[in-house]
From TrEMBL:
Species of provenance: Pseudomonas reidholzensis
InterPro entries (alphabetical): LysR-type_TF_proteobact-type, LysR_HTH_N, LysR_subst-bd, WH-like_DNA-bd_sf, WH_DNA-bd_sf
All copies of domain HTH lysR-type, residue ranges: 1-59
Family of the protein in this entry: Belongs to the LysR transcriptional regulatory family.
Protein's name according to its UniProt entry: Putative HTH-type transcriptional regulator
Gene Ontology molecular-function annotations: DNA binding; DNA-binding transcription factor activity
Keywords noted in UniProt: DNA-binding, Transcription, Transcription regulation
SUPFAM superfamilies named in the record: Periplasmic binding protein-like II, Winged helix' DNA-binding domain
Pfam families: HTH_1, LysR_substrate
Tagged with keyword Transcription regulation: yes
Domain of life from the UniProt record: Bacteria
Length: 303
């Protein structure tokens, strides 16, 4: 049995949950994929996949096996790519996943310059706020916000992602400007929905972080929609400073400074992070992109 080929086939079926898609990816008949995986299961003495005429899913043993081999497969792929490209000009497809709002406002202008400098690199950019698995989702570089990610990936902080409370001058003229956490109860709140939950507003009352009383009037997973509502005087937003910058500069929105700090997380490590697998960093195209993006986007506060 060609063990490496069987592992590649199994990994692709596990990722796509489809023999047909896996066969298309390797340009072989689906029957060849099925036969190789059956041989692998026989050698292991365990069933890795549940198969029906319509569905494919991992067994418990299959999930454990996939988790254990994924890192090794990624390292092998990185080693092969590094040897192929050693001494060469950075080239090939580079897959980047980035938060939608940050991608449009901050990353895309940088990638335009990157493409001019490295014309042999084909960028495949996916903008989404959903969580991403660098290995399973076949992503070379990811940019995500939140607390510092797990240790399995390299996480370089790009921005402290300081959250700022803001509203339009017209809204504040109509409703008044809040000064304290208690004042927020009489104001309309425009809330952001993250991949897992709605971001609740937090305030530090001098002793501990508390949830101030607010009046939510609109919730969205799209920061641009929240900003549009704020510019139409519908309420106040609590969003990262980088997302507000253009609106603040043209005075469409103004910062609302309370006597107490406000935030969406108690963690001091909240920020925007540039993520990549350490094993793939030596590959020329990945190393070039990581350093270019970091140099252009890293906030002076985190450099």
């Amino acid at each position: 049995m060609d063990k490496l080929r069987a592992l590649n086939y199994f990994t692709k079926v596990a990722q796509t949950l489809s023999f047909t898609e896996a066969a298309a990816a390797f340009d072989v008949p689906a029957s060849s994929i099925s036969r190789r995986i059956a041989e692998l299961e026989k050698a292991l003495g365990a069933q890795l996949l549940h198969r029906t005429t319509r569905t494919v899913r991992l067994t418990e043993a299959g999930e454990v096996y996939l988790q254990q081999i994924s890192l090794g497969m990624a390292q092998l792929e990185a080693a092969e790519e590094l040897v192929r490209e050693r001494g060469n000009t950075p080239s090939g497809m580079l897959r980047i996943s980035c938060m939608a709002g940050y991608g449009r406002l901050m990353l895309m202008p940088v990638l335009e310059d990157f493409s001019e400098r490295y014309p042999d690199i084909l960028l495949d950019v996916h903008l989404s706020d959903e969580l991403v698995d660098l290995g399973g989702d076949q992503v070379d570089i990811a940019i995500r916000g939140g607390v510092q990610p797990e240790h399995r990936v390299v996480a370089r902080r790009l921005d402290p992602s300081r959250f700022v409370l803001a509203a339009s001058p017209t809204y504040l003229a109509q409703r008044g400007t809040p000064k304290t956490l208690d004042d927020l109860s009489s104001h309309a709140a425009l809330l952001y929905r993250g991949p897992k939950s709605v971001f609740k507003w937090l305030g530090f009352d001098g002793q501990e972080w508390v949830y101030p009383a607010i009046d939510p009037v609109f919730i969205s997973n799209d920061g641009a929609s929240l900003l549009a509502m704020a510019c139409r005087h519908r309420g106040m937003v609590l969003l990262p400073e980088w997302s507000l910058r253009a609106h603040l500069e043209r005075n469409a929105l103004v910062v609302v400074e309370l006597e107490q700090p406000v935030a969406v997380s108690r963690s001091a490590q909240t920020g925007i992070y540039l993520l990549y697998a350490q094993s793939r960093y030596p590959i020329p195209k990945i190393r070039a992109a990581v350093e270019f993006i970091y140099e252009r986007l890293a906030h002076p506060e985190v450099k």
